[in-house]
Write the structure tokens for this entry.
Amino acid sequence: MTYAEYAALEGVNWSSLKNMEDSPLHYKHRLDSGEDTDTTGRGMGRLLHTLVLEPHNFGDHYAIYPGPVRRGKEWEAFESANAGKTILKESELVEVRAQAAAVRAHPEVAPLLVGAETEVTVKWKEPRHGIGCKARLDLWNPKLAALVDLKGCQTTDPRRFGQMAARMGYFAQLAHYKQAVELGLRRAVWEVLIIAVETSAPYDVAVFRLEDQDLEVGRIYVDDYLDKLKACTDSGVWPGRCPTRQRIQLPSYIFGDGDVTISMEES
């Protein structure tokens, strides 16, 4: 199934659901507007996935522009001739190829690729509210019962990557995908892994394992988002971040080094 076919399927996916972290209003805006601005960085990320997971699909989905800049008549003609494809420059292709080669060369990655299914589309109903969900898994290895996600990153330092994983919600995303395998594919999951590759030289690679406690916390986040979705769908009310009056949260530095307290009456 192509990504376009997957996108057309009914169901709540993670890229939409994660907007509940901001507010139900942000979730609904994302859903209604269909806003999904593409960027060169996102195009390079998709290419990384293709070169690692489905290299045979390169020619069908990508075109490499030989010119120096994305403007002018030559660029416009090339863009028109390759409508529907992700267009990247030669220098960007070289960079992503280096990332993909580093991923495939890592000793922990090769066993995960043997017998793996890639870009797997799954549909299921989450059990508490019966909400229809969908996911597109980077990699599912049925023999190893391993669920694997591929991420580009700035650093593979475990502590700093962990901070990014918390900020970006990877622990919740993978908990959502784990349920996709368990309920949609009806398979047990033994391991949940993230393959992380630095997007700049030397393109270091790490394979990180999410422990049960990480995924349990992620499930709490996902369930909270789905609870909000159910409540908002039933009520027709989609509140923003601050539906009630809030105290402003000023940064501590404005109060200086002393024990200064500033009190303001709300107007």
Q: What stands out?
A: The first helix runs from residue 3 to 7. The domain at 9-34+107-238 is CATH 3.90.320.10 (Lambda Exonuclease; Chain A).
